[in-house]
Amino acid sequence: MHMRKFGFVCAWLTIGAMPVFGAEKPNLPDKPNLVVIMCDDLGYADVGFNGCRDIPTPNIDRIAESGVRCTSGYTAYSVCGPSRAGFITGRYGQRFGFERNPQYRTQDPNMGLPKEEKTFGEVLKQVGYKSGVVGKWHQGAHPSNHPLNRGFDFFYGHLGGGHQYFPEELKIKDSYVATNESESYRTWIMRNHEAVPPRKYLTEEFSDAAVEFVEVHKNDPFFLFLSYNAPHGPLQATEKYLSRFPKLEGKRQTYAAMVSCVDDGVGQLLSKLDELNLTEETLVFFLSDNGGPESKNGSDNGHLRGGKGDSWEGGFRVPFAVQWKGTLPSGAVYDLPVSSLDIMGTIVDLAGAPVDPRRPLDGVNLIPYLTGQNNDAPHEAIYLRKFDSQKYTVRRGDYKLHSEWRGDNPQLYNLEEDIGEQNNIASLHPEKIQQLEKLRRQWDSELIEPRFLGLIHTPEWQAKLKRQRAAKEKGASEWDWFKSLDKNKDGEVTKDEWLSWHKGSAARKGELYREEVTRKYFAQLDGNSDEIITRDELETREKK
Asked: Which residues are in the EF-hand domain (predicted)?
């Protein structure tokens, strides 16, 4: 399988066609350490190893250069909370009802990760690991769902879905006093169960805490989840990082500064592993929790369609790299689909940790695949269900199915030929539709409905949506479409101006641009066929 490569990967080894280490299984360290570095809302094309040009990420790129870049790395969901719930259990969150971003409810023990599901901390504790979470938790704000009550030995971070970055903004000392998501963004940081006064820019705090955890547990097998909330909003950065990007402006500049700070922290952590001679004993994963919300934070998902929250590739296909020096090949590219669920599957197998047979993992041990010992696909399919928007996707091989519950015609895309999901080929491959629909029905039969109302159901969120709708309606009533179409302001809209506007509109909305349809629409409006639309022609036709 050959997929389009991004950036400078052409000189790297592509895994999948032949074993890297031959027929013999490489010698693996006993109970390797595991470090997972997860960003929040990072765009697919916003790291150097995926071709980013305007935001240098030399330290993040070290992971790919010293290991394997996975071009088809997926998360368990396309928004933060459910994605992290899937990762932290190794199971699709739809199996246990975690399919919405939880509300920040410190009095509700059921608003978050169900107690019967086992986390990395609980699973690895059985075989002697020390486990820590640094950064964003987002698995429930009730004390019973605090990381230290879910199997972890160390926590330095915040309980909610996001946070202010500047210490002077953090005015609420006790995280359990915050009553909603907005207030949770302004709490002090928790060190285990203690409220810690803010000291400096939050991303730097988290990087320092991660390095501290490794230093403290250098003689133990350990698991560290470095769970950055950057570059999730609010978009905030210090001058130290903003000054690195004088040619950028607006959201993109601040976003770049936030990513650059993360990259510095990744460098600190990798250097600490080197200093302690732990690099060859430590498996390191880097990924984002979902795709970038491009219009909100200035991120870039590259050729992928859509972004955070979508079932398109831009929603849950993310930057994904894994390093294990001495075990994995260096500078390799792996094209077959892998999942964030595989991280639990990998460490459980390597460490010999027992798993509850009543709750089998959805992830697999990736090492045999990444070393070329196993040339099969790690997964029969990659799945996504979005309960509230009533959408499913199933990817098997190069083909991806989009379907909706209300009987709309399914869509089919060949990602090898059409990574941007622009050409619906469902009518050409009815047999593929049947195969993928059969897989979808079987998977769906194993799932349950969401167990709690999500952030979108809170009064605050509904009020926000109401304000947005009102603003949109007001804007629509005042918006001058002709003026928007007439780029050179000469009082006429040419065919080129018309096509350019519609192409840009489709790109902004993540929709398919149909040029032939757009040309026909222009011809209908062009009453005298002079290849120019006047304001009268546009408004007369629109009224009809």
From this structure: 482-508
Contact yes or no for 346/330 (Cβ under 8 A): no
Domain count, the chain: 2
Shortest CA distance to 252 belongs to which of 329, 364, 58, 260?
Answer: 260
Distances in whole angstroms, Cα of residue 234 to Cα of each of 56, 166, 229, 512:
22, 10, 10, 30
- Can you give the pLDDT at residue 288? 98
In a domain, 416, yes or no: no
Of the candidates 98, 116, 113, which has an alpha carbon nearest to the alpha carbon of residue 146? 113
Q: Which position has the token pair 């509904």?
A: 462
Question: DSSP state, 112?
Answer: B
CATH number, domain with residue 534: 1.10.238
Structure tokens at 237: 């950065």
In-domain check, residue 332? yes
For the chain, the maximum distance between any two Cα atoms, rounded to a whole number of angstroms, is 82
Q: Is residue 368 part of a domain?
A: yes
Backbone angles phi, psi at 335, to 5 degrees: -95, -20
Place of tokens 């390597």: 350
Using DSSP, state whether 35 is helix, strand or coil: strand
* Domain end residue (candidates: 379, 410, 429): 379
Over its C-alpha atoms, the chain yields an Rg (Å, rounded) of 24
- In 3-state terms the chain splits into helix, strand, coil percentages (rounded to 5) of 35, 15, 50
pLDDT digits (tens, 9 = 90+) for 96-116: 999 999 999 999 999 999 999
Active site residue 39: no
Of 379, 405, 423, the one marking the end of a domain is: 379
The answer to whether residues 343 and 488 belong to one domain is no
Domain residues for 535? 475-542
Residue tagged active-site, from 70, 80, 146, 261: 80
Q: Do 280 and 326 contact (CB within 8 A), yes or no?
A: yes
> For residues 171 and 184, is the Cβ–Cβ distance under 8 A?
no
Shared domain for 363 and 488, answered yes or no, is: no
Catalytic residue, candidates 52, 138, 146, 158: 138
Give the closest residue to 81 by CA, choosing from 156, 141, 139: 139
Within 8 A by CB and 6+ apart from 192, the residues are 148, 154, 155, 156
Answering whether pTM is above 0.85, one says no
The residue type at 371: T
Q: In whole angstroms, what is the distance from residue 433 CA to residue 403 CA?
A: 10
